[in-house]
Amino acid sequence: MTDVTSFGGMNIQDIKVGMSSSYSQTITDADIKAFAGISGDNNPVHMSDEYANTSRFGKRIAHGLMSASFFSALFGTRIPGPGCVYVSQSLSFKRPVYMGDTVTATVMVKAVEITNRHVFFETTCKVNGKVVIAGEAELYIPDKTK
């Protein structure tokens, strides 16, 4: 695979259907508080043990978009790498993510449209092998020759 650590990411011609990359992170209380600070989402189901203990989840849960943001990390640093531009992302939240859970985000190339420079991905996050987020993404790959 092309080295995407250098500025500019992968050439669209090098991206093939089936290519994938994954990123894992264990969710901590500090992560949840930091994400709340950045996003402004201070919903008590994320921030308050007292409130969350009485919710349908039984304890505090992580923000769904925090786990989904791992897709952006993969796109911007691995496949296709620096320079790519998000066009769209669909998300379906299947299960909650709790503090202490290790989330593994995976992106897999589904289709490549060389002419319009778009790449389509299947996106999933799993905890203990169970899907917590499923979706699809579309990215634009700039022409590095221009």
Mean pLDDT: 93
Query: Into which percent range does the helicity of residues fall?
Result: 10-25%
Structural class computed from helices and strand pairing: alpha+beta
% residues in beta strands = 25-35%
| Strand neighbour order, sheet with most strands | 1-3-4-5-2
Q: What is the number of helices? A: 4
- Overall form: elongated
Distance between the termini: 23 Å
Number of separate strands: 5
Identify the CATH architecture of the domain at 12-27 and 63-140: Roll
CATH class of the domain at 12-27 and 63-140: Alpha Beta
Unreliable segments of 5+ consecutive residues: 1-6
Superfamily (CATH H level) name of the domain at 12-27 and 63-140: Hotdog Thioesterase
> Any idea what the radius of gyration is?
17 Å
What is the string of helix and strand elements?
A: EHHHHEEEE
CATH topology of the domain at 12-27 and 63-140: Thiol Ester Dehydrase, Chain A
Characterization of the model:
With 146 residues, this protein is an alpha+beta fold. The chain has a domain at 12-27 and 63-140: Thiol Ester Dehydrase, Chain A. Helix content is 23%, strand content 34%. The chain has 4 helices and 5 strands, in the order E-H-H-H-H-E-E-E-E. The chain has helices spanning 29-39, 44-47, 49-53, 64-77, and strands at residues 20-26, 85-93, 102-113, 118-127, 130-140. The chain has a 5-stranded antiparallel sheet with strand order 1-3-4-5-2, covered by helices on one side. The model is unreliable at 1-6 (pLDDT under 50).
Can you summarize this structure?
It is built from four helices and five strands, in the order βααααββββ. It has 146 residues and is α+β, with helices and mostly antiparallel strands.
